[in-house]
Amino acid sequence: MKDFDEILLRRGHYLMLHLPCNKDGNYSPLIYVCMFFESGEKGEQTARKYAEEVISNGGVPVFPFQMYKAIFPETNRLMVSFIQSMALRILKECDEVWVFGDRLSGFMMDEISLATAFDIPVRYVNGLKEKEDSADE
């Protein structure tokens, strides 16, 4: 058993050396992707596009709502609330929140509020923040 533990330890060290890193050599930040949820192929294409943007900027995209919806496709209210609570728990562990798209849902506002409450930086992508700012003028 000791040999097995040593193998696992060595493998863990190897994997730690090969985790995604940004240009500075630091671990890539976990980026929580806040987006308007769409089911089906269109939603998958949109999520893929947003993931590519996060990755191209050195981050690791996190899509908890899409992940849980794939596992639990039921759409009853209780399941949606359960998925939302799990997604918000994951958000607390992320380094940043990126808000994509040009519209906000109520749950997206919850995600942004929680990030703000925990001092997690929020970045608006695709012009949503600019639209809000111009509406205030």
Outline type: globular
Distinct helical segment count:
6
The helical percent reads 55-70%
| Overall mean confidence score, pLDDT | 81
The name of the CATH topology is: Rossmann fold
As a percent range, the share of strand residues is 5-15%
Q: Kindly, what is the distance between the CA atoms of the first and last residues, rounded to a whole number of angstroms?
A: 68 Å
State the strand order across the main sheet.
2-1-3-4
Supply the CATH superfamily name: Hypothetical protein PA1492
Query: What's the main sheet like?
Result: 4 strands, parallel
User: SSE order in H/E notation?
Assistant: HEHEHHEHEH
What top-tier CATH class fits best?
A: Alpha Beta
CATH architecture: 3-Layer(aba) Sandwich
Q: From the helix content, strand content and strand pairing, which structural class follows?
A: alpha/beta
Number of domains: 1
Written overview of the protein:
This protein has about 140 residues and is of the alpha/beta class. It has one domain (about 20-135): Hypothetical protein PA1492 (Rossmann fold). Helices cover about 55% and strands about 10% of the residues. It has six helices and four strands; from the N terminus they run αβαβααβαβα. It has a four-stranded parallel sheet with strand order 2-1-3-4, sandwiched between helices. α3 (about 65-70) packs antiparallel against α4. The chain starts with a helix and ends with a helix. The model is unreliable at about 130-135 (pLDDT under 50).
